[in-house]
Design goal:
Length: 182
């Protein structure tokens, strides 16, 4: 059996199990962007919604320490943005933005990178990983309550309370609002 047959089997099984979105993760792999885009195309061809991941830190995820990640060269945000554009052209549903190298496993948050990525193709195309309340509160304060965030399921209530303005720290409580024109 060839590798692409295994990929097709996996995607088919995901659909058979009722999944409609398939994340295509890349943080731990040395894989060419063209191959990642081909996987996005393949998921789309199967009628599922591809959600590829872009990152600015190779080796991100798991138990990597700040020191280990610092020893790896950071990925230029422009390169991640170009890859996001290629994925969107290939049928990506949303682009997952890996948080390592931006707000996790760094000595100081790289909010400049978050802004650069957000502005690269439009915030509506992204889902930002936000591992803990200070991170998702920062995204809401800077990108608004409708920003797409990926959080641990144990944090959904807290996230939604911050989004709605019902809860937050001194700088955000009661200050999160939306306006829908009727």
């Amino acid at each position: 059996m060839r590798d692409h047959d295994k990929v097709d089997d996996y995607i088919t099984e995901a659909g058979d199990l009722g999944f409609d979105i398939v994340e295509i993760s890349s943080g731990f792999l040395a894989i060419d962007a063209a191959d990642m885009v081909a996987l996005t195309e393949r998921v789309d061809e199967h009628g599922l919604k591809p959600k590829p991941e872009i990152n600015v830190q190779f080796g991100a995820g798991g138990a990597s320490s700040v020191e280990e990640l610092e020893s790896e060269e950071a990925i230029d945000p422009a390169s991640a943005i170009n890859e996001a554009k290629r994925h969107l052209d290939a049928g990506a549903y949303k682009i997952m933005v890996e948080l390592e190298g931006i707000t996790e496993r760094v000595r100081e948050w790289r909010t400049d990178v978050a802004f650069e990525i957000a502005n690269g193709v439009g915030i509506e195309h992204y889902v930002f990983e936000a591992a803990d309340p200070p991170v998702f509160e920062w995204y809401i304060k800077n990108f608004g309550p409708n920003v797409n965030l990926f959080v641990d399921n144990s944090q959904i209530v807290e996230l939604e309370c911050i989004r709605s303005g019902l809860w937050g720290k001194k700088s955000s409580w009661g200050r999160t609002v939306t306006y829908t024109r009727e």
